[in-house]
Amino acid sequence: MQSAAGSVQAARLIDLTYASADLLERTPLQRPAYLAGVLLVLSCLAGYSLVVLRVKSKKRMLVLLLATGGILCLSSAFYTNQTKVVSLIYELKTSLHAQTSFGYQIDYYGLFATTDGAAKVKVRGQMPIIQELPRSLQQHSFDIDWAEGEGASLVLKRGERRYRRGFGAYQLPLAVVFTGDEEVRIENNLDEPLEEALLIVKGQAFSIGEVRPGEALYYLNNGVPLADAEIRKEGFTSLFRECAERFCLADAVWLVGATEEEVRERYGTVRIKVRDIALYVVSGEEHE
Amino acid sequence: MNNRYNLVDSDSWQLFFSLVLFCGIALMLSIPPARQVRFFDQISIFSGIPVYFYTYILFMGIIGLSIGTISARRGERGWILLLLFGERLLLAQFLTLPYLLFERAAYPGKEGAFVLIFLYAYILSFLCALTSRLIEEPTRRISAHGFLLKYSLFIVYYLAPLLILPPLSPLAPWAGTGRCSEYRSCRAMVTRVARLEQGSPVVGYDHHRG
What we know:
The complex is a heterodimer of chains A (288) and B (210). Chain A is an alpha+beta fold.
């Protein structure tokens, strides 16, 4: 029992606060491009000037001015679509799902507001969430409303960052069996595929690409030392390094998978951009 | 009487061009500069200030004053005067409509407020044009007096309240564009227009015409 306890990484010992906070700081802010703005202004000035200077007939001038304005309005409206609209709140969900002797899940919720507004944090499962200690003395808001089954709602000030954390037991429906030198059997009973996965066998890391739901055999080739291995998805490097150290991935057989999703949500009139990244760390069996 | 369709001539074109140019500069300044969350606090010269709306409302007022002056110089009168005011100001607003649509990206979910801003700017500039026309009419031969008087009134009405009592300024409702509701914007706007109507010679002008 003692050895089993020793093999389990206590959730509270794994601190991804700084890794997830840095990810939040690197989150790109969505906005219209300056180049598009410059082009619009120049098009307006040049278009209108051209009509006024070239066209002599007053009626024709008016019609052409309206036509030019209409075209520029349409261009402007089409350009400022969903991907260019400023999001008022940015939310970064960072999840670590681990399956060693026991399974557990740790979620980090980083929130950033570009303007004053209320945000709703949809929490996975029924886990209550707690607020991390402030990273600086300037951050002093701790108010939060919690409704079971609905999640948490909180009010952010402009430029404010808030970090939340939740953890609990979670049996990860993933099984990994290393069956020989060059193949591994993976049973993925998650609803979604692992978009990028690495299999680590005794300090050698093999990229096996996407792991789709269901059971399948994957062939291993082009292994690299664990120190050189990386998950190519943006933002996962620091999380992967943190986990490699905490879980001692250089020993035995491990599967590390990553998924990422970006969604836009609305809470009242507040537009929230959510980046949801999850790292799965599964201890595998070895049957030679 | 002037040609009704003579909406764009060298005088009015200079005004429209200035409006498009300055609103364009304001549009560029209103684009949030930070590309990542970590730079949000560092680059914040105009961050959080609705620069575009301030410039738009300010210049629509100036356009109104100038259109009133042009009208007085040409001796436009009667219903055609009001029609020309309406058409010229509508054209000025239409020329900057691409900017307003672009600016919409910075205030998502506030489409209703944009319609109100458009209407408010129109009403305000129309009243400025009428005021300017009334001031210019008797002082046409000594235009420096009219110019000084109307711009002094304009500065007092637009800018002085910002130093003393900000809610009285026409620029005030847009300070909270990012967070206040359409209802609050509308209420603030109606209050301002009502105040302007009470304080301006527009009512007198109607009586004269009647």
